[in-house]
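Researcher: Next entry in the queue.
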Amino acid sequence: VNWAAPRGLKLALTETGMPIDDPRWQEMFQRLMDFANANNVDVFHWSAGNFWSVRNGAINFTPGWHQNKTLEPSSSGPLKKSAGIAKAVLYDDGPGWAPSGTAVTITVYARGNLTSPLTLTVASSNGGTLSKSILTIPAGANGQDQFTFTSPPNAICTLTYSVASLSLVSRPPPPRKVYSLTDPVAYAVTSLRDAAMAIIAKYNACKWELADGYTDFLGNGVPAAAGQTVRAIADSGYGSSPGNAMEMLNWINEASSGGQTLPTMRVTNLKKNSDHSAASAWGFWCKKTNPFPPVQPNPKNRTPYDVPDPHFTVAAVSAPSAGSGVILQASFSAHVYTSELSFANSQPQAHWVDETGGSVTLTSPAALPANQPAVLSLTSVPGAQRLRVNSTVVGSAAGTFAAGTSACDQLLIGMGFTNFFPRDQFNGNVYSVITGKGAPSVQEMTVLERYLGTTAGIVI
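Model: Structure for this entry, 460 residues:
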């Protein structure tokens, strides 16, 4: 700046950004943006585009998708504050499982910049104890406030937010359910959906339903109707947060994509599903960050599990008319290790590969009829893998994967991506997917499978 000013030269600062995994970076980035703005320096944020294997890194500026609205990157807060832009978007996160009246902590975030404090009110639909009912998001970039909620025993409570003024924000976070059910499996007789959601909350699992499919993950995205393309699905389970949004996105640029096409929304028996049968149709991608000691040993922006961890996946799909393809893949974009639920010659399949080359493949002996919805599941714990079709075990193994290895950096629906390249287009239709870390009981898995069956119009 000292050199350029007397020469009348314009400066541009490129390849800068704000990592999300240490709050001290925000102070640094704010000072940098204030200095650049005061000295008429243009700023070009690092990785402000849709790049394959590095998309959604912890320093990126590309918008995401959370709670069915555009998720501003955290660096937009300091940028807006420096530029004097007063606008923010509200989100929240926190557990949904509160057994035996355990208190849970809920955090409400503002992404963007507030020029004055913002007041919210939170209330419970079914009793319980709030540590406070009035929240205050402070003025400035990326403010937040939090509260604790203690649910009554064996209850379902809905926490609802209201905002005193919407002049600086578009709308409050959506209602949030907290479950303290004594026996979620038994509760399925009363409400299958709430029983399934309680189990999803118990395992902090992710859930993506095409009923939540949107046309875009930017500000003009709307719920996709039959025949429209689908680019965004929010996690409607309990795995997502603003610092680790488990969005499922399709961000290909059709003008220069190399021939890839977008999935299309269909409505079959009144149930929404994404059609991946078009030639070179891509699926949806949730790109995360891989631990990188000592630079970034424990990033927040992570997949729910790695290949060796206990984990499970449940998906309601229609089998492709021919061929093979990935339904849900948890993997590492720069290598081949993976946990995936898929089809091979229209036969349901579960497949695992770890970093050391250890692998397990389970294939159903029977192919599924084309275009007929079914619910497929995989479970994996050290020494035991299972593949289930419509709640029946069709394959089992006793593999153990090398602990402490095979860290994943992505989740994908309707396609795979390993060794830096797309793999295994699905070719079928996807209604819904659940995945999470842990080892649900057989009874819990059955509830999840029955619930996903309802999203595809079938009874399990």
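Model: The radius of gyration is 23 Å.
Researcher: Noted, moving on.
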